[in-house]
Amino acid sequence: MENTLLIGLSRQMTLERQIDVISNNVANVNTNGFKADNSLFQEYLMPVAHADNFVGRDRVFSYVQDRATWRDLSAGSTENTGNPLDIAIDGKAFLAVQTPAGERYTRNGSLQINAQGQLTTVDGNLVLGSNGPIVFQQNDRDIVISPEGTITVREGLNTLQDAVRGKLRIASFAQPQKLQKEGANLYSAPAGVVAQTDTASRLRQGFIEKSNVNSVTEMSRMIEVTRTYQQIASTLQQQGDMRKNALDKLADVPN
Asked: What is the pTM for the complete model shown?
C-alpha cells in the first residue's frame, strides 16, 4: 500500500473518532451536569518509508495517532429553577450517589424524592449523605439545603423547629481527569483514585448546573472536521485515479 494512502487513512481514522466525540457533545448540550469531551492527537513520525521511490535519501513520514480523550471539567452555566430539590455546586466537587453498580459521582443536581421517601437523582440513584441515603418522612415540608449540604425540614403543620434529615456527601478528587465516565453524567473512581470530603465547595439550592458544551463551538468544529475528512477523501480518490490511469496506459499496447 502506498505511503500517501497510509497517511490519508490514518488521518481519516482520527477524524472519525473526533466526529464521534463532537457528536456526543452536541447530543448532550441539554444534559444537566454534562462535561464535554475533547480529542487529543499526536504526531507519529516513521523514520523509514515502506515504499521508497524517492530520489535521494528516504524521508520521515508523519502519521496521526488518536492519543486520548480529555474531559473539560469546567462548570456549566446555572439556571434558577426555584425547585427546592435542585442544587448546583459552586466548586469542583461531585455529589455521591449509590447505583446498582456501586458508588458513583455526578454534577447533575436535579433531585427528587421517590415513593419510599428517599432522595434520588432523576435516574433513580440514591443520593448519599454522611450516614447513607437521605430519607424524608411523609409529613416533611419546607426543605432547606444549606451551602454545606445540611438538609433540614419542618415536620408537619404545627412544628416550628427544624429537623435535620442528613448532610449530603460532597466529594472531590486530587486527579478528577482520572474519573471514568459512565453514561452522560455519572463517574466512577478507578483503583487508586480516592474520593475526599470537600469542604471548599458550596451548594446553591434552587439552581441547576447545565451542560458546559458550547453548541456553537461544537458545530463549528463539526463542520471543520467534516470538510477536512472530505478533502482527504478527495485526495485519496485522485491518487487512486492517477494509479488507475497509469495502469491503463501501460496496458495499452500499440499495434
From this structure: 0.81
